[in-house]
Amino acid sequence: MATLLRSKLSNVATSVSHKSQAKMSGMFARMGFQAATDEEAVGFAHCDDLDMEHRQGLQMDILKSEGSEEGGEPPLEGDIHYQRDGTGPLPPSASKDACSELSGQGKPKITAWEAGWNVTNAIQGMFVLGLPYAILHGGYLGLFLIIFAAVVCCYTGKILIACLYEENEDGEIVRVRDSYVDIANACCAPRFPTLGGRIVNVAQIIELVMTCILYVVVSGNLMYNSFPNLPVSQKSWSIIATAVLLPCAFLKNLKAVSKFSLLCTLAHFVINILVIAYCLSRARDWAWEKVKFYIDVKKFPISIGIIVFSYTSQIFLPSLEGNMQNPKEFHCMMNWTHIAACILKGLFALVAYLTWADETKEVITDNLPSTIRAVVNIFLVAKALLSYPLPFFAAVEVLERSLFQDGNRAFFPNCYGGDGRLKSWGLTLRCALVVFTLLMAIYVPHFALLMGLTGSLTGAGLCFLLPSLFHLKLLWRKLLWHHVFFDVAIFVIGGICSVSGFIHSLEGLIEAFRTNAED
């Protein structure tokens, strides 16, 4: 009798435990957390927190299973399922691949101000130093283009986020996609379900690698102009900078570098303020008559690419919006960040050009007097070298996932061993990428041309063409006529600017490459 009573009590306790587990699991799901199975928990131990944040194409959605009928017991297991792109529960074999996304769900969300700080860092980085050179070849039209690009990039950022949402059967707007790649794949489905994502990944890799090249170019340029009396050429300075950057090939995460990001950003703002202060001190000598309404037909398209490249942030906006505490504040955040960027960029470019007029150089700090130029340029070089690992690591991660870690579709064996150590071919890929950035910086050491080419090719594509095209493709039935007009106009204007800027930038790069090869 005692044994029977003990057995019943044990069964009741187990049932209560299961019910409590299911209720708690459902409660955590409503709060934004996910429950992990034993197999997933094992996978979590092999993931690095910072490495997870770069895997944007594999974000997981939480689907709650419907409750049982009245009077019945709630499900004991599996009241939460993991689903990729809305296609069904995630198989156990995929838990290791998805561990980064699953474990990141419980991370604290960011406020609208913190999201705005991230956007500001992206669109007001050190590449703003090339904007006065764009005014040199564009005049007042260049200033108008700075305003126009801010308006368009703000709008396309909003419509890109709109493509993440759809209306469910109950008429509620729900988030069904998580990244730029998801949006691209949805537009190409069902005939080519992965084509769009591959196009976006290629564009992203090109932009990231070109950003790395620009950091090497600007480092060599700044050091050469800071110490012109030293018997060291710009190419030699680029080689020295690359030697300093070579340890990036051994990076497994960005913990060692992320600590300096805030300091570098603050230093950059201080440098901008110093440049503007110097320009204001020479306000009496400003050459207003040099700012013209006509443009240099051959060089102005390059200026378009420079301006567009300075506003590129769309590639990480889906991830940023998904991590906001209140996603409804995203539109307001985009408005004030782009208004502030437009004002600051326009003022910086105008006052710098008015100060030096036709003598304006590709990197505006090269126009400063030698007494302060060396100090300012050294700080900029330090910022460039510390900023290099971020796009480099992101590009390597995309390449490794596509070529080595994409399951059965991978072209090469996994570049990581069972103990997590990087194998020889993985290290070779990373070193080759560092050397490639050096070779490009040596043979084409032209900051403005490279920046214009990147802005015309990937910047215009990711910021102008693709968002407007995706918006029309996914939501055209619900769009008002003026939205359709804006999307078509942005696509046409962006396409014309992209093609013209790319052709002129490419011609300039080919000519520069031939000149350097002859030397």
Strand order in the sheet with the most strands: 1-2
Highest-level CATH class: Mainly Alpha
Strand element count: 4
Major beta-sheet overview: 2 strands, antiparallel
Distance between the termini: 100 Å
Which structural category fits the helices and strands? mainly alpha
Helical fraction: 55-70%
DSSP helix count?
19
CATH architecture: Up-down Bundle
Q: CATH topology, what is it called?
A: Amino acid/polyamine transporter I
Parts with pLDDT < 50 across at least 5 consecutive residues: 1-6, 12-105
Shape descriptor? globular
The fraction of residues in strands falls at under 5%
Question: What can you see in these coordinates?
Answer:
- With 519 residues, the protein is mainly alpha-helical.
- It has a single domain, classed as Amino acid/polyamine transporter I, CATH 1.20.1740.
- The chain has 19 helices and four strands.
- The strands form two sheets. It has a two-stranded antiparallel sheet. A two-stranded antiparallel ribbon has the order 3-4.
- A hairpin with a 5-residue loop joins strand 3 and strand 4.
- The longest helix is centred in the C-terminal third of the chain and has 38 residues, at 481-518.
- Mean pLDDT is 75; it is low at 1-6 and 12-105.
